[in-house]
Specification:
mainly beta; five-stranded antiparallel beta sheet; 5 strands; 2 helices; about 100 residues
């Protein structure tokens, strides 16, 4: 069970319909900021739930902090916010995201 968790909502610049425009991350603060669960939201509002973000990667990297995302270290197409567990869970339990798709 996760005890020290941060939830991040990350907006990205629109690139194409097959690329997510919003990500949600459940970040384990006790495990070097590795992601426990993630959600991809596409421009049409459809969501993709990810319960193992690292299953197909060669090298697992921790999720940056909100401040790191917003400082343009990873590029200037990002804007991140810390959100509540309730907001994350509401999207996790939904098939369609009805919130803002851009900031």
């Amino acid at each position: 069970m996760l005890t020290h968790v941060e939830y991040i909502k990350l907006f990205m610049k629109y690139e194409s319909d097959d690329m997510p425009v919003v990500y949600f991350y459940e970040v384990d603060l006790d495990d070097e900021r590795f992601c426990h669960r993630a959600i991809e939201v596409f421009a049409n509002g459809q969501v993709n739930l990810i319960d193992d973000l690292y299953c197909d990667v060669i090298e697992a990297l921790p999720i940056p902090t909100k401040e790191e995302f917003n400082s343009n270290i990873w590029g200037n197409g990002f804007r991140a916010f810390v959100v509540s567990k309730d907001e994350f869970e509401k999207v996790w339990e939904s098939d369609v995201y009805k919130g803002n798709l851009s900031i």
